[in-house]
Structures are given as C-alpha cells and as structure tokens.
Design goal:
By secondary structure, this protein is of the alpha+beta class. It contains 12 helices and 11 strands. The strands form 3 sheets. Strands 7, 8, 9, 10 and 11 form a 5-stranded antiparallel sheet that branches. A 4-stranded antiparallel sheet has the order 2-3-1-4. The chain has a two-stranded antiparallel ribbon with strand order 5-6. The chain is globular and about 55 Å long. One of its GO terms (cellular component) is cytosol.
Length: about 375
Amino acid sequence: MSINEILFGAQRGLPLPASFGQVLTIRLKSHDEETKKAILDICGLVAAFCPKLWGSWSGRDIPIHTEILDRKIKFRNTGGDVVLYIKATSKDLAAKIVSKVEKRLEAISMTIDKVVAGKRKDIRVGGGRYVDGITNPNDPVSLAEDVLISSPEEYRGASFAFTQKFTFDWPRIATQSGDTEDEMVGRNPDGASLPQHATHSHIHRAHIRDKNQDQRKILRQALSFGNSGGHAGREKGLMFVAFCNEQPRFEQILKHLLGHEPENPLDRLMDVVKAHSGGYWYVPAAKELGVPAVTSLDDVMEDSHWDVRSPNGYLFYNSQDYLHQMSQGRYIGGDPPNDRLLSLLGRTFSHWRDGWMDCSKVRV
C-alpha cells in the first residue's frame, strides 16, 4: 500500500494545519435519513461522527474502547452526534465559513457547542512559554502509518478522533516557578526535552510504545481559546483535537497519563487542567462522505519551523523536513527513497528522537 493511496483517501481538511478555527459538537434532533442527508450536505473541512451513529448509517459495526474515558477522572465523555472542525487562516474567515451553514445546522440540531479558537502569532501555548506542536507527526509518512486507516479500500483514509475541551487552573500555575512548570511539561521554553524529569512530565506520559518499541503517534491539532481573567497572555483553555488510525491508542495514552491511581495522576499537567466535554469519534474517508479528498502531497503542509536545510539542498537538519521532502520526490540528486525505505527511516528517526525516554517504563 503506497503512501499516496492512503493519503488520497482522507478528507482534504484533515492534514491541513489549524491556525484558527471553530469546533462544533452537535446533537441532532433526529438520526433519520433526511437528517443524514442534511448533515452530509454541509460537512465542513473535517467531519467526524459518533461511531455508533455512523455505523448505523453505513450498516456496519465500529467498535470503540471507552473504559478509561468513562471513569470520568480528569477526562469527560459527554458525546454527541457530529463534530465539525472548521479550519482557517484567520479568525474572521473561520467565522465567515461557519456563518454560511449555521442556520442549516440549527434547523436539524438540538444543541450546538461551539468553541472559537486559534493560535498565537508566535505559535506558543502555556501563556506563551512553550512552542506548540514541536513534535507533531504531520509528515506524509507518519500520517499514512499512524493517523489514517489503510484498509479495507472503501474506508482507506478514514481515522478516529479524540476531543476534550480543557480549561487551565492559572491561579495554581502562577504559584509555580518557571523550572517547576518546565518539569511538569517536560520541555524548556526553547523546546528542548528534559529527560531528568521524564517519569512524571507530560511529554513522557503522553508517549507510548508498542512491543517493537515503536512510538505510536497521534496527530494533534489543538487550538487555544479565550483568555483567563482578562489576562491577554494566558489562554482560558485548550480545545484538544487529535487523530489516529487505532482508537484504542487513545485509551492507552490516557491510561498512561493517569497511572495506577487515576485520582493522583502521574502526569503532573493533569493537576492544572480541567476537562469539560469531549469524546471519541469516527472520521470517515472522503469517499464515504462524498467530500473532496487530499489530491496531492502539497495538501500535507509542513510546519514552517522544520523548513531548514543547507543552501545546496542536500543536508537536512531534521527528520520531519527530510520525510516531507523525500515522500514528495524532492531529492535534488534524483532517485528518492521508496515508500518501504521511508517507512523504515520514519521508525528509525522516531527511535532516535525518543532515545531520552526509559523504554521499559512506557511499553504498552
């Protein structure tokens, strides 16, 4: 199965980066065929559905695991029928897109929970202290292997999503020193990992490995919303949206964040955030929805901070940029690596990047 075949099955909006957007979580008035047609006619850039609902509409079973989420400890499973994730390059454009379909959505919906969100200009989070998305797997190789479903053919390019609407406990965060915050997150403001704090830092607890010691990735497209207490530099919360091709992986990550005593989570970041709503979702392939699909690897955009290489184009300073360029056949010397080699290189790069972790403590 080639990288292109998998990517070209996805909804076109899924791999696009989110700078600004609105996330609409919808409860429909009815689940009948007329409502189904109405919602499919107005699907946004990324449309996801309650797995049970989409299964009933498509005549198949889509099993999901919810044991950890259903405990209601630190996370919430409030459900819903549909999630529309509208992405845009500006706040105004996102609002304009939503305004075109809002009336039609209201006509078929009982409730619509709308979160208006966006990134800071400096692409930082945590009150501007940390670089956002520094290890996000948005290269074509990782998307094809860890984010999008590859088979069967009729569902190729589909995915699963996890959403949580978090707010931050800024009074508690404000009592901590900068070093303590860095220890909690597992990075310093420059983006460097802090392995000495690995056992309880967020970036360590959010990493899981399979039996081959490969890190199983998720694509994170979270956006900040609001401001806390009128403090423009502190976001009120985070609308967390993530995608992967194996729904149980989300449960494994949540379990690893909480540890064996969920009321006292091992991930210290969980002490300063509160979840209000969210759940698991099925993200149909473009063919299932009848919406535009990814048409070229140009639709898989590289984060600007990875675009650094030598003037002659032969020396790559990071693996993300290398995988982006090679998967698109952009090797100056010609004869770029094939998909199989890129897959192996992707796993090797992942092992190199995560060598700071104690693998024995993160195996699943």
